[in-house]
Write a structure and sequence with these properties.
The chain is mostly helical and about 120 residues long. Helix content is about 75%, strand content about 0%.
Length: about 120
């Protein structure tokens, strides 16, 4: 939720730097929309919903979708979020898959998927 709020306020310029140059959408729209989505996903994760494993899948998919912005920042050599060297931007790329796994594991999505596969 904090990241989503920062999209809409103090971190907006850094998030603008994340939007891939090839994306045919207005940069401000992408930053504001992704911020709103992050807030909603954060609220969903903070809930005690019986749908938590499904929410985890959605959060993981969101992390995969925004990975394009991290790649764009590295490929274009864009300074943002204190990442001002190619090395720092490259290292950051390795953390996004960890966020995907964390979302799947923390929400019980992996266990749900294992159960479904075991039933087949």
């Amino acid at each position: 939720m904090f990241a989503g709020i920062s999209h809409l306020t103090f971190g907006r310029e850094d998030f603008r730097a994340q939007v891939p140059v090839w994306l045919p959408l207005d940069v401000d729209f992408v930053v504001l929309a992704s911020g709103a989505v992050e807030i909603v996903l954060g609220l969903a994760i903070a809930s005690t919903s019986k749908w938590m494993p499904q929410i985890g899948l959605i959060v993981a998919a969101f992390f995969v979708a925004v990975f394009a912005g991290n790649i764009n920042q590295y490929v274009q050599g864009i300074d943002a979020f204190g990442l001002n060297t190619d090395e720092a931007r490259l290292i950051r790329l390795f953390f996004q898959p960890l966020l995907v796994v964390w979302a799947l594991w923390g929400a019980g999505s992996l266990a749900m998927l294992r159960q479904r596969l075991a039933k087949k």
